[in-house]
Amino acid sequence: MDRRKFVSALGLGLGAAALTACGQDNKDSAKDAAQAGAAAEGAGKSPAKTMEWKLVTAWPKNYPGLGTGANRFAERVTAMSGGRLKVKVYGAGELVPAMGVFDAVRDGSAEMGHSASYYWKGKHPATPFFTAVPFGLTAQEINSWVNFGGGQELWDELYGEFGIKPLPCGNSGTQMGGWFRKEVNSLEDIKGLKIRAPGLAGEIMQRIGATPVQMPGGEVFTSMQTGALDAADWVGPYNDLAFGLHKVADYYYYPGWAEPGAMLEMMINKDKWDALPDDLKAIVKSAAEAENQHIYDEFTAHNAEALKQLVDEHGTQLRRFPDEVLMKLHETSEQVIQDLVAGNDQARRIYESYKSFRESVVPYVAVAEQSALNVRSMVLDQKQPG
Amino acid sequence: MDRRKFVSALGLGLGAAALTACGQDNKDSAKDAAQAGAAAEGAGKSPAKTMEWKLVTAWPKNYPGLGTGANRFAERVTAMSGGRLKVKVYGAGELVPAMGVFDAVRDGSAEMGHSASYYWKGKHPATPFFTAVPFGLTAQEINSWVNFGGGQELWDELYGEFGIKPLPCGNSGTQMGGWFRKEVNSLEDIKGLKIRAPGLAGEIMQRIGATPVQMPGGEVFTSMQTGALDAADWVGPYNDLAFGLHKVADYYYYPGWAEPGAMLEMMINKDKWDALPDDLKAIVKSAAEAENQHIYDEFTAHNAEALKQLVDEHGTQLRRFPDEVLMKLHETSEQVIQDLVAGNDQARRIYESYKSFRESVVPYVAVAEQSALNVRSMVLDQKQPG
User: Fold this and answer.
1) Which of B76, B78, B80, B146 to mutate to test the interface with A (most CBs of A within 10 A)?
2) What residues of B are in contact with residue A302 (Cβ under 8 Å)?
3) DSSP sequence for A201-227
4) pLDDT tens, B113-165?
5) Distance from the B197 Cα atom to the nearest Cα atom in chain A, whole angstroms
6) Do B140 and A382 touch (CB under 8 A)?
7) Which chain B residue shows the shortest CA-CA distance from A318?
8) Cβ A311 vs Cβ A254: under 8 Å
9) First vs last Cα of chain A: how many Å apart?
10) Residue A156 main-chain phi, psi, to 5 deg
11) B3-171+260-301 is classed in which CATH architecture?
């Protein structure tokens, strides 16, 4: 299994997935485990008294914000079901590699998977709408679209074709725009820049003249140090500080235009889901929804602390991208998204629903939270961010 | 039971609580019901196979966003427990009046209550910190404080003294600043204004020269029509449109400086909570956390639609409060909050924790979501809200 190939074929965001210690192909052991699980469940249609489900994840075990969230989800289900449905978490590479999570859930070798929908763009072009697209919905907006704007129904339809039931399960919040070794003062400064920019962001960066480089997370630090990379987009302060990127770049850019709020997903094998009794279905659903919030809370609190540390203790320089760069990134994003959904009716329908929700919510958020935040900056005499 | 006295003594926000059809004092019937419940549960320490719990609410049954959320919470618990813990929802006035919810949960005549902590300012001055305070935390920020900033522990301690276990369970998001019959162009225009402004907002409005009027929700519409009121703060577009306030006032002000994100609460009688088996405890906890998000999603999606309708179909004029008014409101808010916690060590400790979290999170949110929203306004050529 060529991990580099995976990464470059799919294009990753949320940095962490690329951190994975991939190991060799564990398909055989996955199959063994699946068979053992099936045997334990018995052959009948009604579920056995006690089930143990495997939850494979696209992140290393216990990875802050992502792996910790998967652990809490598993604890919730196990506790709420009084142990009737035990969930065991596997870090990326333990049972299947990070990029094998979708297929493992699809073929039932794992009952559940915790990952991000945009990893599966190679399976279907519409998957990024269920994580984040450039200049798209924020965390709260995507939650509202999924739960009250028709998003869940479209997601069920899309993933249903792969035999998977999806649920929202976590959010990184607005990410940062990445680490740069030199200041970016104009569009010209982007030209030729070797940048690790995942997924759609990489495609957009390429179209505006940068040279996106796909590489596993483990190589990013050294590449920044040697100059093989000029810039790198990772996740946000919480994960970036731990990863040490402030040691190899001075400038930390915002906003995370490419990921205004990256929603994570809990995937459940649909046959297994359909066979669950109603109480366990309700338990899995509420556990995912509760954890959807809790993961975002963990990111928010720890991002705040980490950012303070970066600025106060490590001298990290915060910079906002210049207007002309942001305008060009937006214009190009629209083209890339159009190209993404072109020629695929289902992708276009999902895009139209997403777009129409964005059109509805943007003017409301402007007079609600956005205005409240800007007014708070004013009264606190804080420089209002652009 | 004098409802007006209640309302003016406590000071209400979230408009809806004041809508309540209060009815007469239902304490006797509440007691009867409690006794019947206790009998059904049996006298032993271990819970009976099936329990039915009463959930009293500070809102009318099925009230959009608030009552609907209570209904879903009850359905979640009932479904997840496979009917072992059935939760029955009572609208305000059905079993106890809106403002009797805290005492009903405290004395165990209802096992659970859905309300907002700032209604109980008369019980303890620190309760508003667990809903919203002027220029305070947004919805996501208060969730993060509660779950990862020490807020839950402080809330448990505070409510524990009243024999209540509290959990977050819903959020209105940033509210609006209220309906005004005339434009507000300066601080001078606020002077003498008869305004229905609940809770801390009323106190602040009074200090800057307005005349806050406390009145039941049912009288607001007529009072605005006759000129007995010049302005009224209700909730947000979703509830305000249904309430018809656009018919009696032209100007809809933002931002909701007094409630940047009003968190709702699920209260559980602590003896009943402590006696729950672990699986049911886990179920109640995840149900509240899942609904915490879901209610906010319902508000976001419907506020967006309602605002569009108000502006496009009813000619509502959106106005931002002038800078000098907002600066004065903030300055006065700080004094009112200082006075609120003065002389109460526990209140001061809670305030210090809240304030310290705000200081940590504000600079992070500025470069994350706030910047992303402002940049989105720029690239979409949308007038950036102040």
Assistant:
1) B80
2) 148
3) HHHHHHHTT-EE----HHHHHHHHHHT
4) 999 999 999 999 999 999 999 999 999 999 999 999 999 999 999 999 999 99
5) 18
6) no
7) B367
8) no
9) 44
10) -55, -45
11) 3-Layer(aba) Sandwich (3.40)
Euclidean distance between CA atoms A81 and B282, whole angstroms = 9
Sheet bearing B194-196, strands edge to edge: B211-212, B194-196, B231-232, B178-180, B251-254, B317-320
The radius of gyration of chain B from alpha carbons, rounded to an integer in Å, stands at 21
Instruction: Give A140's contacts in chain B (Cβ within 8 Å).
Output: 139-140, 173, 296-297, 300
Owner of token pair 């997924």? A199
Residue B137: HSE in the Cβ half-sphere, 13 Å Cα cutoff: 30
What are the tens digits of pLDDT across the range A324-372? 999 999 999 999 999 999 999 999 999 999 999 999 999 999 999 999 9
Min Cα separation A98/chain B (Å): 27
Comparing CA positions, the residue from A81, A88, A77 lying closest to residue A49 is A81
CA nearest neighbour of A171 among A258, A88, A75, A69 = A69
Q: Which residue of B171, B357, B376 is the best one to mutate when testing the A interface, meaning the one whose CB has the most A CBs within 10 A?
A: B376
3-state helix, strand, coil in chain A (%, to 5): 55, 15, 35
Low-confidence stretches of chain B (pLDDT beneath 70): 1-48
How far the first Cα of chain B sits from its last, in Å, is 44
Assigned token pair, B298: 């319902």
Residue A143 C-alpha, separation from nearest chain B C-alpha, in angstroms? 6
Q: What is the C-alpha separation between A35 and B53, in angstroms, rounded?
A: 42
- Is residue A40 classed exposed, middle or buried when 0-12, 13-18 and 19+ CB atoms within 10 A define those classes? exposed
Secondary structure of residue A70 in the 3-state scheme: helix
Residues of A in Cβ contact (< 8 Å) with B382: 362-363, 366
Cβ contacts of B293 on chain A, cutoff 8 Å: 143, 147, 289-290, 292-293
- What's the CATH fold of domain A3-173+260-301? D-Maltodextrin-Binding Protein; domain 2 (3.40.190)
Residue-wise pLDDT tens digits, A67-94 = 999 999 999 999 999 999 999 999 999 9
- Residue ranges per structural domain of chain A: 3-173+260-301
Pairwise CB contact (< 8 Å): B255 & A364: no
Mutation choice for A interface testing from B266, B279, B286, B323 by most A CBs within 10 A: B286
Determine the Cα angle at B381 with ends A257 and B246, to 5°: 110
